[in-house]
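DM from R.C. (forwarded with permission)

"hey, sorry to bug you on a friday — could you get me a structure for this? deadline for the figure draft is monday and I only need the backbone to look sensible"
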Amino acid sequence: MSVATEKSPKLQTVETLFDAMKRKDWTTIKSCLTEDVFYRVGSSEPVHGPEEVQKYLSGLYEIASFEYADVRQVLEPEGQVIFEMESHYRRLADNRPISFACTDILRVRGDKIREWRVYVDISPLFAE
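My reply, with the result:
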């Protein structure tokens, strides 16, 4: 016997966002974000708003292509979704696989992401 588990609306939003990122579906990505979304990757400068998130991700995708993520754990404290994962990319300059351990903390307002912090060291993308 299997037990059906229904995903929370906030987890559904985050999964929609991550799926759209794989496809570079900018319309769907932006639809998951509030107009004043805060986005920060590692120690980079934060960006604000869906258009700036798209610019940041577009720049990243000019350097590397996302392949897949090994999700280790998903937590859902009040108003948040936290993903601990190993993200796998391919660096476009030399076709080399690059992996990062990272944790994404996404805070939601209603059914949209209002704050998205990615704790990761992306320096291997730029290493020779």
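R.C.: lifesaver. Strands lie at 33-41, 47-48, 64-75, 80-91, 96-109, 112-119.
me: no worries. The chain has three helices and six strands.
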